[in-house]
Amino acid sequence: MSTTVFTLTRQLTVPLEAEVLTPDVIAPLDHDAIRALPVFLGKRQYRVDDLFTVEGAGSEDLEIRGEAGRVKWVGRGMTRGSIRVVGNIGMHAGAFMKGGSIEVSGNASDWIGAEMTGGLIHIHGDAGGQIGAAYRGSLSGMNGGAILVDGSAGLEVGMRMKRGIIAIKGPARDFVGLQMKGGTIFLLSGAEIRTGAWMVRGTIVSFKPVRLLPTFSYACAYNPSFLSIYIRHLRSLGLAIPDGAREGAYLRYTGDSAIPGKGEILVWQPGRDSRSVN
Amino acid sequence: MGGKVSCTLGEVKNRADLIIYWGGNPAECHPRHFTKYTLTQKGKFVPTGRKGRTMVLVDIRETPSAKAADIFLQVRPSKDFEVLTALRAIIKDQPVNEDALADTGLSMVELRDLAERMKKARFGVLFFGMGLSMTRGKHMNSAGLLALAAEMNAFTKFVAMPMRGHGNVTGGDVIMRWSTGYPFGVNLSRGYPRFNPGEFSTVDLLLRGDNDASLILGADPGATMPQPAIDHLANTPTIVLDPKVTHTSRIARVHITTAVTGISAPGTVYRMDEIPLPLRPPLRSPYPTDEEVVRKIYTAVAAKPLLPTPVMLHQPIG
Amino acid sequence: MPANSSLRITGGKVYDPANGINGVVRDVCIEDGRIVADTSGGRTIDATGMIVFPGGVDVHTHVAGAALNFARAMIPEDHRRNTPFARTAHRRGGIGGSTPTTFITGYLYAGMGWTTVNEAAVPILTAKHTHEELRDTPIVDKSCLVLMANNEIILDLLETDEIERATHVAAWQIWAAKAYGVKAVNPGGVAAWKWGKDAKDLNQPIEGYHKVTPAKIITSLAKIVDDLKLPHPLHLHCNNLGAPGNFTTTLETMKRLEGNRAHMAHLQYHAYGGDDWPTMRSESVTIADYFNAHPNLTTDAGAVLFGNTVTITADGPWQHLLYKLTGRKWGNLDVENETGCGIVPYTYKEKNLVNAVQWAVGLELLLLINDPWRVYLTTDHPNGAAFWRYPEIIHLLMNADFRKEQLKKLSPKALKRIVLPELTREYSLFEIAIITSAGPARALGLPQKGHLGVGADADVAIFNDDKDVARMFGYPRYVIKGGTVVLEEGEIRNVVEGRGIIAHPTYDQKIEEYLRPIFQQYYTMSFDNYPVEMERIEHPDVRTCN
Question: Does pTM surpass 0.90?
Answer without folding.
Answer: yes
